[in-house]
Amino acid sequence: MDIGHQLDRMKESFLWAAAKGGREEEVESLLSIGADVNWRNGDEGETPLIAACRSGHRGVAALLLAHGGDAMGTSRNGESALHAACRRGDEELCALLVDAGAHDEGAFEAGVSAGHGAMVSRLRGLGRRHAAAAQASSSRRPPPSIRSAALPAVEPPRRSPRRIRDPAQELLEEVRSGYRERAADAAERRMRDDEPPACPTPQAVDIVAARLDEAAKGRRQEQQKRERAQREADAARAQSNQLLAELMQAQTVASKLREKETNLKRDLRRLRGRGLSGLEVEELASLERDLRAALRRVTLAKEKRLKASVHVPDGYVCPITRELMRDPVFCGDGHTYEREAISVWLMTKDTSPKTGCVLESKALIPNFALRSAIDDLRNRRRLADEVAEDDDAKTLPASPG
After folding, report:
1. 200, 221, 242 - which closes a domain
2. 160 falls within a domain
């Protein structure tokens, strides 16, 4: 299993645990970096949606459904998210699942057995209304054969590339148009009834527009932080894979040299056992040079392997403590720090530790991608240390004199 696949599995297991614990911000962060919303854990085969419904976390369930969560997915024992919600008697959560397309008579029966018969009756009525609405919508359309016979075949018009809309700009235009309509209605009423003015002033419109611009700016900054974190995680993952490849290559070279050293020592012991009287001085000197060269290559290979295994990328080190981070978080300046160190810094300062600029916000956002890469680096270092200890234990005994 390669490192990338292991990181994906780690993200999805974190998503399942966050959904079970009701941590909405963590769930949203993991979904934004590509975690599989319908991943199943290895024990019960539960999806994150089933785990959230089993614990009664409505907000997490709505977030998962909005990102494509399967409302009809079942675990290994055949239970779905609707089973868990009906058994808990959470009518609002059940209605959310039914609206998403979930319908399971077994789940309704489980709700009745748990003493929630009235709730199940209402949910069945809601399901029937959804089915009737879907059937009515489909019945309004003529069959494909009728449509093809009644309408001539025409080539669909070519669509121009759709312009990406800014939600904040659209909301601003909608607010402004609404204020204009209200101002026109208020002016008409004043002319008719001589009423006092009740429409918002232009200053109020400017205040709302400024707030919407700030919200749009905040969303853009958040998106930029997420993209920067993804780029850092990709670079760290590529560097880790390269170091792992170098480590494996060094181990292969060391194994071959160790084998050659063993053969040379065996030949030397055999020669010593039968006596060296039949060998020339040049042959003995050549044999000794080969043995020393083999020992020197083994030593260099071990040093190269250890250097590759303990290399730490600069992005893994906290700029404040200059140590490998354990709980990396984003700060308002866009850089990543150790949570404890930046928290102590922000208690007395409102500037960036790296740039010295004043921070717009002191909020800290977890960097889950970098944390996973750092954990993987620690595991590889521990593995390299174990391999080095094993190599020292396998050192060949000295040949008899």
Report:
1. 200
2. no
Angle between helices 3-21 and 48-55 (to 10 degrees): 20
Q: How many domains does the chain have?
A: 2
In a shared domain, residues 78 and 24: yes
Per-residue pLDDT of the chain (401 residues; tens, 9 = 90+): 455 566 667 777 888 888 888 888 888 888 888 888 888 887 778 899 888 898 989 888 998 888 888 888 888 888 888 888 898 888 888 888 888 888 888 888 888 888 888 888 888 888 888 777 777 766 665 555 444 444 444 454 454 444 445 555 565 566 556 656 766 676 666 666 554 444 556 666 677 777 778 888 888 888 898 898 888 888 888 887 887 788 788 888 888 888 888 887 777 776 665 555 555 667 767 777 877 887 777 777 766 666 555 567 888 899 999 888 999 999 988 899 999 999 999 999 899 998 889 988 888 999 998 899 888 888 877 776 666 666 555 544 444 43
187 with 98, same domain? no
Give yes or no: residues 31 and 98 share one domain.
Answer: yes
**b/e per residue, 31-48, with b = 16+ CB within 10 A?**
bbeebbbebbbeeeebbb
**Same structural domain for residues 77 and 177?**
no
The CATH number that applies at residue 128 is 1.25.40.20
178 is in which domain, residue-wise? 167-200
In this structure, the answer to whether residues 177 and 137 fall within a common structural domain is no
Enter the pTM of the model: 0.37
Among 156, 181, 200, identify where a domain stops: 200
